Amino acid sequence: MPEVLRGLGASSGTATGPAYRLGDPPRLPAPRPVTDPDREVDRAYAAMDAVRDDIARRAAAADDPTTAEILAAQAGMAGDRTLRAGVAEAVRAGHEAPHAVAAVLAGHRAVLIAAGGLLAARAADLDDLRDRVVAYALGLPMPALPAPGHPYVLVAVDLAPADVALLDPRQVLAVVTSAGSFVSHTAILARARGLPTVVACGEALTIGDGTVVTVDGGAGRVMVGSAATAPEQRAAAAREESGDLRGRTADGHPVALLANIGGAAELAGAHAEGVGLFRTELLFQHHVDPPTGEEQAAAYAQVFAAMPGRRVVVRTLDAGSDKPLPFLPTGDEPNPALGLRGLRLARGRAEILRTQITAIAAAARDCTARVEVMAPMVTTVAEAAQFGALCREAGLATVGVMVEVPAAAVRAAAILDVVDFLSVGTNDLSQYAFAADRRSGELADLLDPWQPALLSLVELCATAGTAVGRPVGVCGEAAADPAFAVVLAGLGVTSLSMTPAAIPAVRAALAAHTLRECREAAQKALAAADPAAARAAVTRV
Ligand code: PEP
Ligand code: MG
What we know:
Helices cover 44% and strands 14% of the residues. By secondary structure, it is an alpha/beta fold. The chain has 3 domains: 3-24 and 144-228, Glucose Oxidase, domain 1, CATH 3.50.30; 37-138, Orthogonal Bundle (Enzyme I, Chain A, domain 2); 234-539, TIM Barrel (Alpha-Beta Barrel), CATH 3.20.20. The strands form 2 sheets. It has an 8-stranded mixed sheet, with helices on one face. Strands 9-10-11-12-13-14-15-16 form an 8-stranded parallel barrel, surrounded by 5 helices. Helix 7 (161-166) links the parallel strand 4 and strand 5. The longest helix is centred in the N-terminal third of the chain and has 25 residues, at 37-61.
């Protein structure tokens, strides 16, 4: 079995190839006394100017607006007057040019890290600036991208915008970083470039150069030592070629296979029956002002147009915590994951939710897609009822909620009295049920979706749905694991939504088991003492 490293899925898609690590950044030499401060200030400024001009050139040459905008902002940092004044002061206090730049940027970095959230995610940009200016001042080359002479998976502590912008997609198949977050510029640019990426993968640097890895950017996993093309995938490909996209067990029990997407581009080539999770917040992650209704309706219409006649579940903005949106600041929260996020943001900013629902309804009117809408982070029956009423008032007939908070799972039956469907978000449900930050590599054992307690929560939802004949899907990344998908089907889940690349293998796994076998697998997993036993019991079914 390949070893699996966990991180945070930052840009969906899968790729397999040999891994190579980005070179180390330049090291500062031992400090020496400054004899001519004026000359030393000039040296620092010359390095900063050269770096600013270089990054500005890359911004001008960028072929997409996101990259251009991010690089232009970084060039602006290199030319920042306060930064320059600070560097001059540090030189006059006795630091040589490279040391002065490193010290001043370290101060700025500490401020960003202390601010947390989106600002902390920008620390990597400052690190890159420091490395570039230090390298230039010392006359050293910048850390170069590996050049093994064939396509590869790039491994690094983090990547700077300027690095990501330069990646040649014919050479770099995927990216894995040990640092970073969902909103770091590495992640944002990787998504813009459609590059499968896993960030915050604590053990990334243990991967030796040349080791074959499979990166699953949707599930946030890196399989080390695997070529990952199972016979199941080949069988599924054959079925897909015949144009049959329906998921079903060997005896024909339907389990819809849907796609998790952040925009229309991710549907290209997807063999999905529909969209089970449209993460709308990803469309607007750069916006400083709230997107207008027209702007939103146009973006939603693109996705609906790509899915004529098919089901598309639009999730209203899931901002806050690990997905901060500049136009929806949550203030200084001591514990953002337990604070204002998802539907809770509507408490103070009801107009943003209202505008979004109106925009979804407007786009839905002009298409043939079967548009449904759901809210993230719903906790109580009252929240579900309020959301349902708001959507129906706007003309959206099919309304559901995500089950990501254990309280909602426990009350699944009552929630299904007020909405039409449930979609279980196992990523957050694990986080909240096990009191373990979903980004934590150290707590990966608690976040393992095979934890029997998580399965019990999913079972509560599925049983509530079966009792009243309403759909209960799973849209957390766990649905992308073929063996786990068999268990979910056995628990009574009616649809599975996942990163599009994972659908063929899940389709093949379902097709290989009867519903009875799926139910047996589910019972064995539920009865297991721990995740390893649950997994082992199922792979023997
Ligand atoms: C989840 O929490 O499982 C989910 C699908 O939502 P997200 O990953 O976008 O928080
Ligand atoms: Mg979630």
